[in-house]
Amino acid sequence: MNQPPPRTLSELAKRVLLAPTLDEKLAPTPGLGDLDDDRETIDPLPLRPARPSNLQIATGGRLKVPPAAGMVDPSQRIRLLHALANHELQAAELFGWALLAFPDA
C-alpha cells in the first residue's frame, strides 16, 4: 500500500469505499481524531463499494449463516466469524458512502 494516510474525513471515506483491496480499506489511520472535516462529496457517487475480484458481494440470500448457537461447533465458528467480519466491512463501507453522499449531515 503506497497511499499516504488520509488527512480529511472525505479522504478516509473515499479510501474505505473505493480502495480495491482489504488491506487498503482497513489500513489504520493515525491521528483519526485530527482529520479535517472537509464536507466533500464525489460525483458520481458509486452505487457499490470497490472490492477485490475474490471478494464480491453475493446477492439474493444465496449464503446461509448458521445461528449464533453454532459458535459452540468449531466447524461452524469459521462461517459465523466470516459473516460477522462481512457485516463489519459493509458497515464501514456504508458509513464512508454516507459521509460522501450527505456531506452536510
- The termini sit apart by 31 Å
Cα shape? elongated
Class inferred from helices and paired strands: mainly alpha
The biggest sheet, with number of strands, parallel, antiparallel or mixed sense and barrel status, is: none
Q: Helix-strand pattern, N to C?
A: HHH
Mean pLDDT: 86
Over all CA atoms, what is the radius of gyration? 16 Å
**Fraction of residues in helices?**
40-55%
Strand content: under 5%
Low-confidence stretches: none
Total beta strands = 0
How many individual helices? 3
Overview features:
105 residues; mainly alpha; 3 helices; 40% helix; elongated
Structure notes:
The structure is a single chain. 40% of the residues lie in helices and 0% in strands. By secondary structure, it is an all-alpha fold. Helix 1 (9-18) crosses helix 3. It is elongated. The relative contact order is 0.21. The model has no long low-confidence stretch (mean pLDDT 86).
Record the SSE blueprint.
Elements: H1 9-18, H2 22-25, H3 74-101
Helix pairs in contact: 1-3
Brief rundown of the structure:
With 105 residues, the protein is mainly alpha-helical. It has 3 helices and no strands.
